Amino acid sequence: KAYFAFADDCFKTNCLRKLLFPTGSLKRRFSKAISREDGLEMVDHKPRLDGSDRGHPGLYLSCFDMLFTEDAAWLVRVSDSSTSTDVGPRLEPCQEPEQCPVIDSPGLGASPLSPTLEEQVEERSLEQVQSLVVGEVLKDIETACKLLNITPDPMEWNCGNVQKWLLWTEHLYRLPQVGKAFQDLDGKDLCSMSEEDFRQRSPQCSETLHAHLDIWKSAAWMKERCSEGEELWSEADSSCSGQPIHLWQFLRELLLKPHSYGRCIRWLNKEKGIFKIEDSAHVARLWGLRKNRPAMNYDKLSRSIRQYYKKGIIRKPDVSQRLVYQFVHPV
DNA sequence: TAACAGGAGCTTT
DNA sequence: AAAGCTCCTGTTA
Q1: Which of A74, A101, A204, A234 has the fewest CB atoms within 10 Å, i.e. is most exposed?
Q2: Is residue A57 part of a domain?
Q3: What is the pTM of this model?
Q4: Domain termination site, one of A195, A225, A255
């Protein structure tokens, strides 16, 4: 419940992507809050009920504002405007070091401590909530699309679609009507606008409009990514239907789903096809499961990978590193 | 100590 | 026969 309230606020503060794909420390914080079941610390929602405050949603996110250094500008704005209202207790700034940058640290310097059981449970609960949130967002968008008879992807909108979407959003957030200010714009124009551009056209509603558009953009982006994945998945499935799966295909499958397997195998450089096996035992176990070889281990799996050297399927990257391999023909 | 390289024989499909 | 599996010796970081 707390998470959903939090998510709702995130949407209005243009941070959907960060909510759905949180980075290191934020991720741990979410996970801990969820697994403790006390939710994130929410302070009261007075500002939101106060009609005068519509332009500044989200300033009561006590947990949020310490987390993103890159949001400094936004923070300053929020902090300034929040001095007049009671925003409740703040969490002290989080100084804890990045101990376990698993998925979001593409660098080679990462030290992949194997996650504890507790962390895995936290991770899982976070994933569940995330998929719930995503599901709700997509449902809302789908409903709106049906109602307005527009496509979910803002990039495809014509001027009329933009106007419909504006009307809808105004209705949703009880904003004053600002359609005229956006009269001449199609979806592409709208998507390319910065928050500053929005502000110039509509000083009162720029933040909400821009944030809400960002949700739609993110949703479209996710949908696209999803169908891409499905295509690759079915391609890999159909191209070898009946035939046993090859090890390199299996590794590709895992790499395709960083959300599920990013802890044990991940891209270091997707373009060049360079990947790293973070948890050799785990990957071997998965491979053994797939091939029904309970005695599989990394020693044997890596021997199979080495067979690919001669065949030109996988090789060691130019600068050889432990547990790092490279697809000779990256997709 | 774990990962790496590669030979050799065996098994599964 | 292809693609791994298994076991092994020896090397490297």
Answers
A1: A234
A2: no
A3: 0.44
A4: A225
CA of residue A121 relative to chain centroid, distance: 19
pLDDT block averages, 10 residues each, chain A of length 331: 58 55 55 51 37 32 29 33 36 35 36 52 60 73 85 89 89 86 89 88 86 82 59 45 86 93 94 96 95 96 97 96 96 80
Same domain, A129 and A216: yes
Q: Are residues A215 and A251 located together in one domain of the fold?
A: no
- Does A95 reside within a domain? no
- Report d(CA A175, CA A202) in Å as an integer: 11
CATH of the domain at A155: 1.10.150.50
Within residues 242-261 of protein chain A, the ones with CB less than 7 A from nucleic strand C are: 245-248
Q: Are A229 and A256 in contact (CB under 8 A)?
A: yes
Q: Among all strands, which nt has the closest C1' to A298 (CA)?
A: B3
Nearest Cα to A278, choosing from A31, A103, A22? A103
A22 is a domain residue: no
Parent domain of A197: 124-225
d(CA A120, CA A102): 12
Written as six digits, the tokens of A31 are 């996970």
Residue pair A150/A157 in contact (Cβ under 8 Å)? The answer is yes
A299 Cβ nearer than 7 Å to chain C strand: yes
Domain membership of residue A130 (yes or no) is yes
